[in-house]
Amino acid sequence: VMLFVFVRVELRTTHPMLPMRFFRQRDFTGAVVVIGMIVFAMLAAFFSLTQFLQLVQGRSAFQAGLLIISAAAAMMLGAPMAGAMVKAIGPRYLAVIGIISMTIGMILLSGLQIDGGSLQVVAPLALFGFGGGLVLAPLTDTVMAAVPVEDAGVGSAVNDVSRELGGALGVAVIGTVVNGLYTSDVTGSLAGSAPPPLVEAAGEGIGGAVLASAGVVNGTAGAFLDTAREAFVDAITAGFRISAAILVVTLFVALALLPRRMRASQLGLE
Fold it and tell me: pLDDT tens across 153-182, in order?
C-alpha cells in the first residue's frame, strides 16, 4: 500500500524524489527487477541454510560461517571476470550465464541430506556465489548508466532499495512457506507419539524442537529430534526449489529486459 502511495505522489509532484520516467527505460527497469529477484531467492536460501548447518547438523556458528563463506569467495572470483566479460558479450548474456550458475547451485542445495558432508553445501554455494559475482556488479553498472550524471544518487538509491526490498520479501515470503510446511509436517508426525507441549514446541520451529529435546526422557529424545530435523529438511529443500523456480523466471526477465550491449558511458567512451 505504501509503495502504491509513494508512486502516486512521485507521479504528481513537480520535484519527485524518484522520477518515474527512469522506469520507461528497459535497461534501468530490467536491471532493478533482476537484482531484486536474485536477492529475493538468495537471502531466503541463506536464512534456511544457516539453521540447517547449526540446528540440524549441529555445527557451531563458526563452522557454519566457514562453509557459507565459500559463496563470498566464489563471488570475489566472479566479480572481476564480469568486468571483461560484460564488454565482450553484454549485460544480457552475462546475466544469463550467472543466473544459470546460481540456479544450478540452488537445485543442488535442494538435495541436502541430514548426514551429508561439507561438500553438499560448499559446491552449490560456490556455483551460487560465482554466478552472483558475474551478475550483480554489471547490473549495478547498468542501473547507473541509465540515469543522468546529476541523478547518480537516485540511481544508486534505487539499486540499493531493489536489494533490500528483494531480500526482505524473500525471507518473508519463502520463509513463511517453509515454516508452514515444517509446522504441518512435524506436528502431524509427532501427534499421538509425543506429549502436546513437545509437539507445540517443535511446531514453533526447529530451534524450539532442539531446546525441547533436552527435556525428553525415557530415551526418546533422539527419535523426537530426528522427526523434527527430517521435517525441517523437507521444508527447506522445498524452499530451495521455490528459489530455483524464481531464478528461472528471473532468467526470462533478463532476456526480455536487459540490453544486449552496454551504454557508451559504461565503456568509458563518454
Answer: 988 999 999 999 999 999 999 999 999 999
Are 53 and 43 within 8 A, CB to CB? no
Give exposure, 179-214, as e/b (b: 16+ Cβ within 10 Å): bebbbebbbebbeeebeeebbebbbebbebbbebbe
Beta-bridge partners for 194: 191
Residue 194, SS3? strand
What is the rounded (10 degree) CA torsion for 204, 205, 207, 209? 70
35 CB contacts (<8 Å, ≥6 apart)?
136, 139, 140, 143, 159, 162, 163, 166
* Distance, CA of 85 to CA of 97 (rounded, Å): 11
User: What are the backbone dihedrals phi and psi of residue 187, each rounded to the nearest 5 degrees, phi first?
Assistant: -70, -35
What is the amino acid identity at position 92? R
Residue range 225-240: mean pLDDT, rounded: 93
Q: Is pLDDT of 215 > 70? A: no
206 vs 189: CA distance, rounded Å? 14
For residues 135 and 90, give the distance between their C-alpha atoms in angstroms, rounded to a whole number: 11
Confidence of residue 268 (pLDDT cuts 50, 70, 90): very low
The answer to whether residues 91 and 138 touch, using CB atoms and an 8 Å cutoff, is yes
Chain segment 113-124, per-residue pLDDT in tens: 999 899 999 999
